[in-house]
Amino acid sequence: MFIGPPGVGKGTYAKIISQKYNIPHISTGDIFREEIAKGTELGLRVKPYVERGILVPDEIVVEVVKRILQSPLCNRGFILDGYPRTVRQAEELDRIVNVDVVFLFEAPLEVVVERVSGRLLCPKCGAIYNVSWKPPRRPGICDICGTQLIRRRDDEPKLVRERYQLYRQTLTPVIDYYRRKGILVEVNAAREAHLVISDIEHILAKIFKLNPG
Ligand SMILES: [Zn+2]
């Protein structure tokens, strides 16, 4: 499980680890954005919350996560990103699956603001770029599929600060929950991405006695 403030880079780390170990990266935020874009029933239900940047109610999120984690897709394991957001969700999760390790990514607010406001997203294939440390080869164009990149509205500095504060308020009890269980590992995410990834790999190797690939 990957937790940390929005914009700390955990989505990027999750994508890399997911590819290296060939396990699915499950991001409730991505799922909700896809459902909204497709205009599904679930999309319509979560849209008002996601657009205002507030927490989607427990009963909706629990239902969605339960369905995915119990599907064959997750037979070999999974990375959960952006979930759980409340202690109730954490308790529900314990009833469905066994969580091996929780990575808590930490970075100061100003580091997060700088990273997020430079972030560009491909609306077609989901690739993430950053104008300062991972720019696309052609400005504003996706390297992978050639689509025009966009900046998400909720990546504006003011909204990033608000989400960071909301995260601090809501996630502290969740962090304490996993700390008490003894499965919380804190990672300094204010460093370059390859150093963060290397830390994650070392810890995974220790826990699961495996190597990437
Ligand atoms: Zn693309």
> Largest sheet, described in full?
3 strands, parallel
Bound small molecules, by name, code or SMILES, are: zinc ion
Beta-strand proportion: 5-15%
Mean pLDDT: 90
Which strand order does the major sheet show?
A: 1-4-7
Level of helix content?
Answer: 40-55%
Number of helices: 8
**The number of domains:** 1
CATH 2nd-level architecture: 3-Layer(aba) Sandwich
Q: Would you tell me the structural class of the helices and strands?
A: mainly alpha
Tell me, briefly, the overall form: globular
Care to count the β-strands? 7
In the predicted model, the low-confidence regions spanning at least 5 consecutive residues are none
The CATH fourth-level homologous superfamily: P-loop containing nucleotide triphosphate hydrolases
Tell me the series of helices and strands, N- to C-terminal: EHEHHHEHEHEEHEH
**What Rg do the Cα atoms give?**
17 Å
What is the CATH domain class? Alpha Beta
CATH topology: Rossmann fold
How far is it from the N-terminal to the C-terminal residue, by CA? 20 Å
3D structure, described in words:
The two termini are 20 Å apart. It is globular, with a radius of gyration of 17 Å. A three-stranded parallel beta sheet has the order 1-4-7. A two-stranded parallel sheet has the order 2-3. The protein has a two-stranded antiparallel sheet with strand order 5-6. A hairpin with a 6-residue loop joins strand 5 (119-121) and strand 6 (128-130). The protein has one domain (2-208): Rossmann fold (3-Layer(aba) Sandwich). It has 213 residues and is mostly helical. It has helices at 10-21, 28-38, 41-52, 58-69, 87-96, 109-117, 157-181, 193-208, and strands at 2-3, 25-27, 79-81, 102-106, 119-121, 128-130, 184-188. Helices cover 50% and strands 11% of the residues. The structure holds zinc ion (ZN). Zinc ion binds at residues 122, 124-125, 127, 142, 144-145, 147.
